[in-house]
Amino acid sequence: MKKMSNIYESAANTLGIFNSPCLTKVELRVACKGISDRDALSKPDPCVILKMQSHGQWFEVDRTEVIRTCINPVFSKLFTVDFYFEEVQRLRFEVHDISSNHNGLKEADFLGGMECTLGQIVSQRKLSKSLLKHGNTAGKSSITVIAEELSGNDDYVELSFSARKLDDKDFFSKSDPFLEIFRVNDDATQQLVHRTEVVMNNLNPAWKTFKVSVNSLCSGDQDRRLKCIVWDWDSNGKHDFIGEFSSTFKEMRGAMEGRQVQWECINPKYKAKKKNYKNSGIVILNQCKIHKMHSFLDYIMGGCQIQFTVAIDFTASNGDPRNSCSLHYIHPYQPNEYLKALVAVGEICQDYD
Predict the structure, then answer these.
(1) How confident is the prediction for the chain on average, in pLDDT?
(2) Which N-terminal stretch is annotated as signal sequence (predicted)?
């Protein structure tokens, strides 16, 4: 028994079973303030690019959406990264002005960058720093990154919104509405969850179906308040407020199985001033689908069987098995590399076969 326990210990040490890293998935939300373009007569169309350093080189990991004509953008796109407590993970956030004529970076204006470690963001939860331009000169612009650990609930929800009879905010055409959904946190702060596309010249818009994780939407709390705002998009970035309403994920689940959920879109100023005011339109949730993301443990507990098959390559390149340098050499007191691997993997798999 003692000899076998030594085999298990040797196998575990060989494959690093007892040295597994502390891995956590983290969502990063990004917002900027006071960014300016080289052209003082126009506002930039910002996009944030996330890069990570590996072997001294910077590699692009992901990028946000482009927000048109905005100096204080709050991006709805989340960056999901793996956080290793025992590693120094260097990040670089670059803000670029992406013109409407192209989405590439070759001709885009660099508006500033910020470097930090993932550990700094995670430890502070909310990190704000100045954006540095070429030459590491700091201007008045800044970037804020908020970190949130994924709770382990990987389920996501598919939502499809539309509206009817929204207020008309334009003189020569109809409103160009879009919808924003905010999660209200425990400290009463609001976190942007999703921003729909703009439907041009339409008081009865039907926005595209979108997907969002349950963790991002409500932090796993179905009764958490969600604030929803409808805006009329303007090209100068000064969007007109149409109305708002509150809901919860629990209420939105009422739109499952072909049913609809409706809310009155309310403008508080109109409601206070106008006696006959009813609403500024109706927002409709046409579809709510929950997609459960099963973990590996779900499959195992559900009865999944693992078949264990072994193949050994007796290649001549391993050398004479009578030589102690050969991988096939059978030592009288300790296991060879093949036996170490077989024991390490087989010991795990045998419980599920």
Answers:
(1) 86
(2) none
Query: What distance in Å separates the CA atoms of residue 125 and residue 84, rounded to the nearest whole number?
Result: 16
Separation in Å, CA 219 to CA 27, 154, 226, 249, 255: 12, 11, 11, 10, 20
CB-count exposure of residue 280 (10 Å: 0-12, 13-18, 19+): buried
- Which stretches within the chain are classed as H helix? 2-15, 118-124, 214-218, 249-252, 268-273, 296-301, 337-349
Same domain, yes or no: 177 and 62:
no
Cα separation, 207 vs 121, in Å, equals 34
What is the domain range of residue 107? Answer: 11-150
Give the model confidence (pLDDT) of 53-83 as tens digits: 988 899 999 999 999 999 999 999 999 999 8
**Between 2-15 and 337-349, two packed helices, what is the crossing angle to 10 degrees?**
90
C-alpha span between 329 and 320 (Å, rounded): 8
Residues 21 and 105 in one domain: yes
Alpha carbon of 264 to those of 100, 241, 281, 294: distances in Å? 34, 15, 6, 36
**Which residues lie across from 147 on neighbouring strands?**
28
